[in-house]
Design brief:
single chain, 183 residues, alpha+beta, 4-stranded antiparallel sheet, two-stranded antiparallel sheet, 7 helices
Length: 183
């Protein structure tokens, strides 16, 4: 009887299947290249890209605790359900009108986005997508621009740190590649 009550109290009423399995999520990996965040062990926020990706919102990752940005995230397993991480992000961002269904949809999308990655992978964000740091021959249409890169600028910056901000922080890079169908 007590085991049943314990399970009732520890498993959230929403998405109980998520609560029983470990979830993959993004956590700050390090302070390499450029990092305004000094937190340790905190989950990242999902992309919050605006219409000015050169400012950093198109190529940096925000911390869920301090909201400051960093470059590299590590994929880790967590016992915290994605639904709960979504709720925390909504509260941290001060979003209004977000429903439980919106959060459930976000959690499902985030699980799909992280499915190709293994725990321990180091990833970087670029224009709506996450890529393993060792990714090559990258060609995709992002939220803002069409990209064709031999290597991630984030990876190249490990050898030449100013390169990252010189390329992705340059408004001209983004405007020259802006998708014509972007509304």
């Amino acid at each position: 009887m007590l085991g049943w009550l314990r399970r009732l109290w520890t498993v959230p009423a929403t998405a109980p299947e998520q609560a029983r399995t470990r979830q993959k999520f993004l956590f700050k990996a390090n302070d390499a290249i450029l990092s305004f965040c000094r937190c340790e062990g905190e989950p990242a926020m999902s992309g919050g890209q605006l219409d000015c990706p050169w400012c950093g919102c198109g190529w940096m990752i925000a911390c869920s605790k301090c909201s400051k940005s960093f470059i590299f995230a590590e994929v880790r397993e967590t016992d915290v359900p994605l639904i709960e991480l979504g709720r925390r992000e909504v509260a941290r961002r001060g979003l209004r009108g977000v429903t439980e269904q919106d959060i459930a949809d976000w959690a499902e999308d985030m699980a799909a986005d992280l499915a190709p990655f293994a725990a321990g992978d180091i990833v970087a964000y670029l224009d709506g997508s996450y890529f393993r740091l060792d990714a090559t021959d990258i060609e995709f249409d992002g939220y803002y621009a069409a990209h064709k890169l031999a290597r991630l600028p984030h990876a190249e910056a490990l050898d030449d740190p100013p390169r990252l901000q010189a390329l992705l922080g340059d408004r001209r890079y983004w405007l020259d590649r802006e998708r014509p169908d972007r509304a």
